[in-house]
Write a structure and sequence with these properties.
Blueprint lengths: L14 E3 L12 H9 L4 E8 L5 E3 L31 H4 L20 H11 L2 E6 L6 H15 L8 E4 L2 H10 L5 E5 L7 H10 L4 E5 L5 H9 L3 E5 L4 H10 L3 E4 L10
Parallel strand pairs: 1-9, 2-4, 4-5, 5-6, 6-7, 7-8, 8-9
Antiparallel strand pairs: 2-3
């Protein structure tokens, strides 16, 4: 597979391990990060949301059901509360098993805090893409808090994390709090908006990157995004031919689950 060279002023590697190690280990755990690193990956994507007491931690879904379904659910904070992860304080979330759902080999793996992931990445010289995943109703606040923690945890580090989100309010919060941190707008589908409109959102949010569903990139959309000055990243790229197509288009980053099959060159 041939690749075009990365532009020198984009500090992040081209290949990015999805949720730590794709599907090979329990997603969004330190175990997944360690496994992804063992396959040569130097940049990782993860999902970050807030506990009810404001601790940033890694989890993709709104609820604990999929990645903690073997556990007895913790008591709800109050009878009216929906059983979403963000309803619980960190001392409750910290006791959950985030590995047993994947396989017995990972039973007992905890949910990690952003602080723990930062320590791992900084100690090893790895790069991070933090996808901000707000609990409904906390969108801007989550962006503010995640940006604040990222700036503090990576203070003095040459390349801080890339902050991305599908949620415009979350990115507005990150921009208002720490505008110096790189941001990327996530796009799953055009949803009735033109590329010009989506690029307008990203420009207003002072984003450096567009991170979108890989099928959205073609010759026209790549040309428009590049002309607007954005870096172009794709998720989740697990097919050889599709990876090559995106590389040939000149995109800047590929987020993949196939960390054991795609060699992370550049």
């Amino acid at each position: 597979m041939t690749e075009k060279s990365a532009l020198p002023d984009w500090p992040y590697p081209r290949w990015i391990a999805h949720r730590g190690a794709g599907t090979l280990a329990p997603e969004n755990t330190l175990a997944a990060f360690r496994l992804g690193a063992s396959w040569g990956y130097r940049m990782f994507e993860c999902d970050v949301k807030l506990s009810s007491d404001g601790v940033p931690f890694l989890l993709h879904d709104d609820t604990l059901t999929r990645t903690a379904h073997l556990l007895t659910p913790p008591p709800r904070p109050n009878p009216q509360a929906s059983a979403v992860a963000g309803d619980y304080p960190w001392h409750t979330l910290a006791q959950l098993d985030a590995g047993a759902w994947h396989s017995s080999a990972y039973a007992g793996e905890p949910l990690p805090t952003l602080k723990a992931i930062a320590r791992f990445c900084i100690s090893n010289g790895y790069f991070l893409n933090i996808e901000i995943k707000p609990t409904i109703g906390t969108e801007r606040h989550t962006g503010e808090v995640v940006a604040r923690h990222a700036a503090r945890l990576w203070q003095g580090v040459a390349v801080p994390p890339l902050l991305t989100s599908f949620d415009i309010a979350a990115l507005e919060g990150a921009l208002a709090t720490h505008p110096e941190l790189a941001r990327g707008l996530l796009i799953h589908a055009l949803e009735g908006q033109s590329w010009a409109q989506w690029l307008g959102h990203a420009t207003r949010l002072q984003c450096q990157a567009i991170v979108c569903n890989h099928v959205l990139w073609n010759t026209e959309s790549v040309a428009l995004a590049k002309a607007a000055g954005f870096r172009l990243l794709s998720y989740t790229v697990n097919d050889d031919q599709e990876a090559q197509r995106l590389l040939d288009l000149g995109t800047d980053g590929l987020i993949t689950d196939r960390v054991n099959e795609f060699k992370p060159v550049c």
